[in-house]
Design brief:
This protein has 256 residues and is an alpha/beta fold. It contains 5 helices and 16 strands. Responsible for channeling the electrons from the oxidation of dihydroorotate from the FMN redox center in the PyrD type B subunit to the ultimate electron acceptor NAD(+).
């Protein structure tokens, strides 16, 4: 973990309220696992007090850059969306327990399911799995066509399906509907998204090896404030910021 003032290389809007931000700095050299996140100070002197946790969407170790894709909806992230090339961002990271693509068996098939702003961390994971010889299938869920992003980027890596709740893009319904309707066959599951989606995945595919990344509001991001605790089946608690955000299915109770 390291704190660094990183430089904005590029910022662009991908969809309604969805932005892609590329930052450069030596902190990138510590980013090893997909599924980790960074804690970002979102503005200048008048920025909100707490940092914002944002997942890592892509890592380029050769260029010392990484990409975040985030939704600009609150005061902090709206300030973040106003940054331009050359501006500096105070970043703490990498944080959390990520996915382990090297643990998958080459030649097997992994299903990557993402909902809304849970889609971004699956992109780096998909690249790592593919490089490891694992076949990938992506199912991406959004509310409507205005919210869809990175369809083509995922399609370049493997079989990709998109679901929208209103049917305005791709197939109508939820991620679980698309998986069942297309009779998708896979060995393991990696899912990121809102709790209701993760719970549906856990209930729908109980026989598959499954890893879930939980979304939760955080305070410190380093396990000191106990703002993001989640109960386990045994009655104990785990912290999403340090024990997660990635857990094996059944390890914690959903919803938190």
């Amino acid at each position: 973990m390291k704190k660094e003032l990183m430089e904005v290389q590029r910022q662009e809007q991908l969809a309604e309220s969805i932005f892609r931000l590329e930052l450069s700095g030596t902190l990138v050299r510590q980013m090893q696992k997909p599924g980790q996140f960074v804690h970002v100070k979102t503005g200048g002197a008048y920025a909100p007090l707490l940092r914002r946790p944002i997942s890592i969407a892509e890592i380029d170790n050769e260029k010392d850059t990484f990409t975040m894709i985030y939704r600009a909806e609150g005061e902090g992230t709206l300030q973040l969306s106003g940054l331009r090339k050359g501006d500096q961002v105070d970043v703490l990271g990498p944080l959390g327990n990520g996915f382990d693509p090297d643990a998958e068996i080459p030649g097997t098939t992994a299903l990557l399911a993402g909902g809304g702003i849970g889609v971004p961390p699956l992109y780096e994971l998909s690249k790592r799995l593919k490089n490891h010889g694992v076949n990938v299938i992506h199912v991406l869920g959004f509310q409507n066509e205005r919210n869809v992003f990175y369809h083509n980027e995922f399609a370049a890596l493997g079989e990709t399906y998109v679901a929208t709740v209103d049917g305005s893009y791709g197939e109508k319904g939820f991620v679980t509907d698309v998986i069942k309707n297309n009779n998708l066959v896979f060995n393991s599951v990696f899912a990121v998204g809102p709790n209701v989606m993760l719970k549906a995945m856990e209930n729908s595919f109980p026989d598959n090896r499954m890893f879930l990344s939980l979304e939760e509001r955080m305070g410190c991001g380093i396990g000191a404030c106990f703002a993001c605790v989640c109960k386990t089946a045994e009655g104990s608690y785990k912290k999403i910021c340090v024990d997660g955000p990635v857990f094996q299915a059944g390890e914690v109770l959903i919803p938190c």
